[in-house]
Amino acid sequence: xxxxxxxxxxxxxxxxxxxxxxxxxxxxxxxxxxxxxxxxxxxxxxxxxxxxxxxxxxxxxxxxxxxxxxxxxxxxxxxxxxxxxxxxxxxxxxxxxxxxxxxxxxxxxxxxxxxxxxxxxxxxxxxxxxxxxxxxxxxxxxxxxxxxxxxxxxxxxxxxxxxxxxxxxxxxxxxxxxxxxxxxxxxxxxxxxxxxxxxxxxxxxxxxxxxxxxxxxxxxxxxxxxxxxxxxxxxxxxxxxxxxxxxxxxxxxxxxxxxxxxxxxxxxxxxxxxxxxxxxx
Amino acid sequence: xxxxxxxxxxxxxxxxxxxxxxxxxxxxxxxxxxxxxxxxxxxxxxxxxxxxxxxxxxxxxxxxxxxxxxxxxxxxxxxxxxxxxxxxxxxxxxxxxxxxxxxxxxxxxxxxxxxxxxxxxxxxxxxxxxxxxxxxxxxxxxxxxxxxxxxxxxxxxxxxxxxxxxxxxxxxxxxxxxxxxxxxxxxxxxxxxxxxxxxxxxxxxxxxxxxxxxxxxxxxxxxxxxxxxxxxxxxxxxxxxxxxxxxxxxxxxxxxxxxxxxxxxxxxxxxxxxxxxxxxxxxxxxxxxxx
Lengths: 281, 291
Hints:
The structure holds two protein chains of two kinds.
Chain A: H1 7-10, H2 24-29, E1 32-43, E2 46-57, E3 61-65, H3 72-79, E4 89-97, E5 100-101, H4 109-115, E6 116-119, H5 131-140, H6 147-160, H7 164-167, H8 180-193, E7 198-202, H9 210-223, E8 228-232, H10 236-242, E9 245-250, E10 253-259, H11 260-265, H12 270-276
Parallel strand pairs in A: 3-8, 3-9, 6-7, 7-8
Antiparallel strand pairs in A: 1-2, 1-4, 4-5, 9-10
Helix pairs in contact in A: 5-6, 5-8, 6-8, 8-9
Chain B: H1 3-6, H2 12-51, H3 57-61, H4 75-106, H5 109-123, H6 127-139, H7 147-172, H8 175-183, H9 188-199, H10 201-216, H11 220-223, H12 243-251, H13 256-290
Helix pairs in contact in B: 2-13, 4-7, 4-10, 4-12, 5-7, 6-7, 7-10, 8-9, 10-13, 12-13
């Protein structure tokens, strides 16, 4: 299994081991998509996130890694307020999306979610809808009905999700008739169709075979030209392969956040070191 | 075989005993299964053997003949039952479905507990009680028995049935569809109407048909609401005929001809309910295939 192999082996030795991390100058120039300050989250009495402070850059891929139950899914669900579906959650702290307060009292969660799309662990195309309907549902239900526009956006989204060539002749077939990997790319196309600024991915490949995973990873790579991608993954090789920055979460805390290369080659924190080298988690 | 397993090997006689015990139990269970379904065949046998002779074209097209005259039919009662069911659906379907949506999608755990409890109590209320309540609500104030009152009585009975089945099928729709919708920035009510309800639509329709089949044969709620009518109903605020009422009236009459007609009416009513059940079967079979 790929997971067992320590990630270090797979990452080219570009940065000399033991060298001091040199990330500070690069960070200042980037546009920041999400600025999270002292963010904590509770499920009832249980605190799931402790005082998270992180700046997620725009038009980059940021990976969030950590063992099961460390709060990584909770964290990205808090970025577009999806956690509010779980009753009894409570938050403290500040999340800003390009400077705007995501949790502001006048901010509608639906508006946030239109700007911050999400792809889930298990592909979930709507079973009553065709491939085309699945892609366009977000636009249609938000009131966009002009045929030529929808038609264009359909092709555009499916092309971006690298699915167009496989489904262009069967757009009327049910979305659930596709294979697992195709379904996941369909869900990505569906998320892209509403033109969000950010795409959150919650372990998008964990239910896919290696070939389908490779396709989705390639897709993530091409997405960062136009989009900010935040991806939660169990798979450290995946984080190493497709992200620019990596955050390591453990027990609801952000342990370390840096350039992906630094996290895998030369982490500052011994816990990060232990995790990325496969000694725990 | 090793010595260890040999010690667990039962004797030949014991094996035979086990075999016979197993056969005996299988036969007993089979007999019970036959006993469960045989009433259905008994009912069908009696209805057909006693009712089929009175079942002719006139039965479906003519009004009842006055006492003493032979022939006639139950056309008004058949149409009356269909009209009552239609009115009941107008009352029961929207309220029941929307109540079910509330339970599955909006209600808090605490509120849902009490609403479900109330619905289950309502489901257990004897139908004659519904008749009395609607009589007090809609017959006494308007000083007349009416089709409206009959439809309302049946509709009230449908509400808790439909509410519970709607809730059950909506809860079966995976949470991930709702999340996918929300993540697209779609408003919650649109997700519920366009995605969730559509996904569960077959189940909801099945629930409505089952509720309809369940109330189609009710007599007690109609006794002092719809009352019955020997002629066509031209005004819904007047009494209306219904098959169960007509069967009841004819069955307790002293005339052989009416007895035969009562059997025939029962056969028709049974046929209607059976048809509804078959439709439900066909729908839910398609449902399983698509999943």
